[in-house]
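TICKET: design request
STATUS: open
ATTACHED STRUCTURE:
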């Protein structure tokens, strides 16, 4: 995938050499998850992952979706066993219209299928926040204040948030707080990569 060679089999989109050479996070589970039951990022946000994620998000290179989904699915043994729903980080409707898709939503379906749980979308992004890249932790937190709103109560006990990159965790924390306020008991987060 990242080198242009075919994947390792019918379900794999990343060739053996690329899979081995990816910047795997030696400690994918954060030791201090805070508001989260678990916080997992499979890779470091470095080459070639940083380039591929930007190409997916900003240049519509959707052929990267299966590769990133494969990486996220590799996290299954690390996930808490009681997850009963998956939620992609919502995009504001304007940004989704401009981009044409929500990359987190593209990842969420296969993860939910693997875990045998539904994808839930009872939270929407009501605030069109500026891009988070380039902002420090305090600016990211201010940027996301009141960004999410719940459209209905959530009957699920443990929701897994799916995102592409976790940096300070501000986006996932803001979404987790909204989920907890609408009835969810526990929240975990799974991302392709961790930056910083």
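STATUS: resolved
RESOLUTION: sequence designed for all positions
ATTACHED SEQUENCE:
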């Amino acid at each position: 995938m990242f080198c242009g060679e075919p994947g390792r089999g019918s379900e794999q989109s990343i060739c053996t050499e690329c899979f081995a050479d990816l910047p795997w996070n030696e400690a994918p589970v954060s030791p201090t998850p805070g508001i989260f039951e678990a916080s997992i990022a499979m890779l470091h946000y470095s080459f070639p992952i940083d380039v591929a994620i930007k190409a997916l998000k900003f240049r519509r290179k959707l052929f990267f979706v299966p590769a990133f989904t494969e990486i996220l699915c590799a996290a299954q043994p690390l996930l808490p066993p009681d997850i009963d729903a998956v939620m992609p980080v919502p995009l504001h409707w304007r940004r989704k219209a401009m981009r044409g898709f929500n990359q987190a939503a593209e990842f969420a379906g296969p993860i939910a299928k693997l875990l045998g749980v539904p994808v839930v979308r009872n939270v929407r992004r009501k605030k069109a926040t500026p891009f988070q890249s380039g902002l420090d932790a305090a600016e990211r937190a201010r940027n996301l204040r009141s960004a999410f709103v719940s459209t209905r109560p959530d009957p699920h006990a443990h929701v897994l948030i799916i995102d592409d990159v976790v940096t300070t965790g501000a986006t996932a924390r803001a979404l987790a707080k909204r989920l907890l306020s609408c009835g969810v008991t526990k929240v975990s987060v799974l991302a392709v990569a961790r930056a910083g």
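CLOSING REMARK: The beta strands are 39-44, 85-88, 123-125, 148-150, 158-166, 186-194. The chain has a mean pLDDT of 88.
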